[in-house]
Amino acid sequence: MTILVAVVTYNSERLIADLIAGLKVGLAGLRWHLTVADNDSRDGSVAAVRRLAPDATVVEMGRNAGYAAGINAAVAASPAHEAILVLNPDVRLTPGCVSRLAEALKEPGTGIAVPNIVDGDGKLIYTMRREPSVLRTLGDALLGARRAGRFPLLGEVVADERWYASERFTDWAEGSTMLVSAECWQRCGPWDESFFLYSEETDFALRARDAGLRTRYVPEAKATHLEGDSRVSPGLWALLTLNKVRLHRRRHGRARAGAFWAALFLRESSRALLGKKPSRAATRDLLSPSRLRETPGPASVTRHA
To answer: With 0-12 CB in 10 A as exposed, 13-18 as middle and 19+ as buried, what is 11?
Structure first.
């Protein structure tokens, strides 16, 4: 099996050396090719990739086009492959990680395989997700994500560590590390670039599930995700929240999306009253019809900075 490693960079120079070293470890024994799509970095990201991985394909986007657009461009510019490893530049693979994911892709009904992921301190990250719903959003609002996540009907985040001990299907998973079969990409791709950032992996995984190709969690495959700041950045959290509404509206129509919006508004406004700045930003944007209608872009991320 030949693996395309698709990485999107944006001012990621400090991460490149360890990323490339980690690829050699995590993909040992496999045929693979690295393609990096750079979203108009202002640092030395592109130069670092070309210096440290001279055989890699580099796609210079010329603008900050978003995560989905970068992944699509990387796939389009790459040589033939049987699977696509979608990988954040701040993810570090452990030995054998991708080999185990590749084995899992052979299991019937599997289109996407995802690993067990820990943070920089070695703590498990709850990466498995259930399909967003009104009831699960209300459960999050009233009980908190972790408490609600212990109950399948009430939580979107799978927040019970026992579920991470064994291989299983999940509706979707955090998109920092995903191995996608070429068949899945051909049937369900490309990723929806209108999301810019957040919900693009949700949309893709749910469309794959609709097509009979599900997301399989593989605990024996392990990786470390070092960074990620959506929970502390008001702009990123607001964008994440709005994209949840946009996705729900596309899948279920305006009437059901109205109820979903109300549940999200309850969650964010209650947290805003507790002084949480990201939720204040999300609440303001949820009350803005123009923000719900517009196509996200770089300004969406920096608006509340």
So the answer is: middle
